[in-house]
Amino acid sequence: MDGNDAIAWVDRYMGLVNREIRKSMTFSPYDPEDFLHDAYEAPCCQLG
Questions:
Q1: What is the spatial distance between Cα 44 and Cα 28, in angstroms, rounded to a whole number?
Q2: What is the full DSSP assignment across 23-43?
Q3: Which pick of 9, 17, 19, 48 has the fewest CB atoms within 10 Å?
Q4: Are 38 and 28 within 8 A, CB to CB?
Q5: Reduced to 3 states, what is the DSSP secondary structure of residue 48?
Q6: Using a CB cutoff of 8 Å and minimum separation of 24, what contacts does 2-8 make?
């Protein structure tokens, strides 16, 4: 798996990612975009 595959995985499971983001938003000071950025960054960091 490379970086493009990791990004494609997040894109493929965007519905699941958004559901998890909504769960975390209840008491969070962060915006959904912050969580989405982390969703893209996490698999890429695991590759390197």
A1: 24
A2: HHTTT-SS-HHHHHHHHHHHH
A3: 48
A4: no
A5: coil
A6: 2/47, 3/44, 3/47, 6/40, 6/43, 6/44, 6/46, 6/47, 7/40, 7/43, 7/44
Residue with tokens 């493009």: 4
Residue 39: closest CA among 1, 10, 5: 10
Query: Hey, where are the domains in the chain?
Result: 3-47
**Other Cβ atoms within 10 Å of 27 Cβ, number:** 5
- Which tokens is 15 given? 């519905």
CB atoms within 10 A of CB 39: 19
